Amino acid sequence: MQQESEKEYDFVIVGSGLGGLVCAYILASEGHSVIVLEKNHQIGGLLQVYSRDKTIFDTGVHYVGSLDKGENLYQFFKYFGILDKMKLKRMDEEKFDVIRFDDGSEYFYGQGYDQFKKNMIGYFPDEKDVIETYCTKIKETCGKFPLYNLTVTGPSYQMDSDMMELNAYDYIASLTTNERLRNVLAGTNLLYAGVKEMTPFYVHALILNSYLSGSYKFINGGSQIAIQLSRGIRNFGGEILKRKKVVGAQYNDAGQITSVVTENGEIFRGKEFISNIHPAVTIDIFGENRFLPVYRNRIRSLRNSISTFIVHLTFQENSVEYLNYNIYQHHNEDVWGGVEYDQETWPQTYFVCTPFISKNEKYAESMSIMTYMKSEEIEEWSHTLRTVSEPGEREASYLRFKKHKEEQVMVRVKKLFPGIEDKIRSVHSTSPLTFRDYIGNKDGSLYGVLQNSSSPTRTQINTKTRIPNLHLTGQNIAMHGILGVTASAFVTCFSFVDKDKLIQKVKDA
Known about the structure:
Blueprint: E1 3-14, H1 18-29, E2 34-37, E3 49-52, E4 55-58, H2 72-79, E5 88-90, E6 97-101, E7 106-109, H3 112-123, H4 128-142, H5 161-164, H6 168-175, H7 179-185, H8 201-212, E8 216-218, H9 223-235, E9 239-241, E10 246-251, E11 257-262, E12 266-275, H10 279-286, H11 293-301, E13 307-315, E14 326-330, E15 349-353, E16 366-373, H12 396-416, E17 424-430, H13 432-439, E18 470-472, H14 481-493, H15 499-508
Parallel strand pairs: 1-2, 1-12, 2-9, 6-14, 12-18
Antiparallel strand pairs: 3-4, 5-8, 6-7, 10-11, 11-12, 13-16, 13-17, 14-15, 15-16
């Protein structure tokens, strides 16, 4: 039986990932009536946390950049009114990221360009000019993205085909013949699931620059962003409803959406609609006949970034010291090789971090080890679904698969941290299925659509759709990550709010 909401909202937002929440905050703060519909029991998409053995684990956000005073994300968080409510831990000045190779050699990324250059020139004294040129190119590239620099005018990346088509691997390789330096400079490419033939240099540049501009961990987990944003949204009169899975839409004769329909038959009426879910899933929900075949085919054929397998360890009390930095471990000399992994030697590339928990500053409660996993590996269980709001069961064979994978990861971890096995209380893991079910894409893709330097326009997705009152936001639209998704949500809202005035508010925050 269908129940129709009495109210017609100015904006109905489908999905409460960061993009949806940022849009809701902006629009509610501008006086619009807003409702956010979320299918899960927890809001936030990749900001979600979960608990095992009374220990909190982050789903997707393990650290964040651009949070030093005056940097872009710092200003965005001030504008949202959440900066002073965030519990943040600044990572080590000299090393927030450590790039580590099979031979045991380590290279530290320092905070800020001065420390970064000092470290790199220390490792590679003969390559001083290369390192200077590289850093200059990073800054120059970031200067072509107006919103990244909190402006809506100036040179635009979309007009610069040379920059859009510049490949990250090729550019770094053009600077130096020193293989180790090439690999160190690209050593954090797990942050964007880098693919040698595809990843544009601008993706590499925007992300590296962000982390050099103030790297922080969220104390007690990244879900606080979603919690604080949701409070702000509600303070402006916005509504957020959980366990409301949108499965369809209703239209008027002019081809405009009048309402969305949830799985349990509820109808939510609106004037404008914003989808914060993957464009391919959006097409399924809003009716494929409403989109041109050429658009449908392009969206459905876009390659998503690879998925992930994460092993979470909980430790016995006061047994493992907290690390105020992350480790990117590479077992193959080519840091781009981890994506096309070999089953026998998997995992070849992985990220290690210890979350910071306020009640014990010296010791880690837990550790997360994140590596690549293709969604094809979990294909035989793809018919199953398991979330808190839809608690289905996975088969015993799936649990055996996960256990086997956990053991493979632990072989690597024991070599990295000798004796760690004696300090572990429990082992848990998440696979591409977990990400698929909680984020709502089709294959558990970690960072959404892969950008492609060979055909940049093909992977660019407009926030406006052929349906006059349906707009898109989220990590698939421009860039992934906290900063990328926040910026793309602003772009979505520029259709409804004066962009100059809005960005001025961010600057004045």
